[in-house]
UniProtKB/TrEMBL annotation:
Residues 15-26 have a biased composition (Low complexity). Pfam families: Pkinase, Zn_Ribbon_1. InterPro entries: CK1_Ser-Thr_kinase, Kinase-like_dom_sf, Prot_kinase_dom, Tyr_kinase_AS, Zinc_ribbon_dom. The gene is VRK3. Residues 78-92 have a biased composition (Pro residues). This is VRK serine/threonine kinase 3.
Amino acid sequence: MPGRRVRGRRGTGAGTRTQTQTGTQTPERPRAELSGGSPRPGPFCPQCGLAVEPTFRFCPACGGRLPAPPEEHTEPAAPAPSPPPAPSPAASPSPRASAVRLGPRSPRKPRAGPAVPLPADTVLTDQGGRLWKLVRLLEQGGCGLVYEAQSASGTCPQKQSYSLKLDAKDGRIYNEQNFFQRAAKAGTVEKWKKWHSVPLLGIPNCVGFGLHADSYRFLVFSDLGRSLQSVLSDGLHLLREKAAFQIAVRVLDCLEYIHENEYVHGDITAENIYLNPADLTQVTLAGYGFAFRYCPGGKHVAWREGSRTPHEGTVEFISLDSHKGTGPSRRSDLESLGYCLLKWLCGTLPWSDELDKVKVVVEQKERYRKDVRCLLQLCFRQRSIPDALQNYLEQVLALEYEEKPDYAALRQLLGKPLEKMKASAYNSVDVPVVP
């Protein structure tokens, strides 16, 4: 079963890990000690009662928005004339000012609810004036609706199938559209493939986008095929090592591309990986609703706990950075891919049955981050543990927040088992897929 997703909440981050940043605090032991000063009580989350840092904007446990700290008043020594104008946010160092300052994410609109499916044969018009007819609903999940669609305007081959993603106008699909417009134009992808001598690169080709009925936003892609999750749900459940490593190498290629274009994916999961039943050499990484621009203008964002909604994405697979509400970085995507590999090969993770207890999930990920061998033994039980997977997880979980991964070395790690099998990551994936 796919991991539970958490939508629409923003929270904290994870770079230099300390005991006060592990998410394991309890209300009985408030985190109130500040460096260089004596202990003092801090604020508490009104939703779950957890003690939180005074500068946090979101609770690291439940993800709820915290109330702004009360403004401190001091009595003037003498009567003063009318109060001066409030200082600008940039000039005020107080917690109050930083909590309410206007910025790109403030004030934040509430997230739209799930989109209501549209009937088959509905025709949508994109911003270029092209018409797209919905054929059938393929998938429905927390990140929108995916339809099989056909061109209805004569500008594209009539019999060619397309994948059309539909969601609420102000849902995460807006973030996804921004990603494709900024970082995944077809020409940019082709140049990168040639420069890196990559024969296949599974970045979706977005051929159109637009609004419908003033309440829906949609994106049109060349046919994506079927999600890996739907293939596993057919009864396959587990992948063989050959297929798992083939898919992982192909996803690594995609991650290197988007990371070099200033973004991280933020939600690596089988639901967002697509296989083409007609051509199993095609592996596509889709689902960019949680994409995050970690390096705008070439400058890596700072690790800051409490800056985004904690636990955002698919809880089973997201990184500890995402659990703590910091902006995900390159290591976050690679950590999530490692969890996915474990799930594909073993069918479960130590926290798979605890997804409704996010704090437990975080504690277990923290524990096994420091003991990869124990994690693998727990998942594989009596089965042989692939050395490639252990080496991959150890290297990825040791990365620093701003550190650039060695993608070539990671690909080589996962490619060695394929070489022994006389296979390549760019061959047809060794998975039975029906249309």
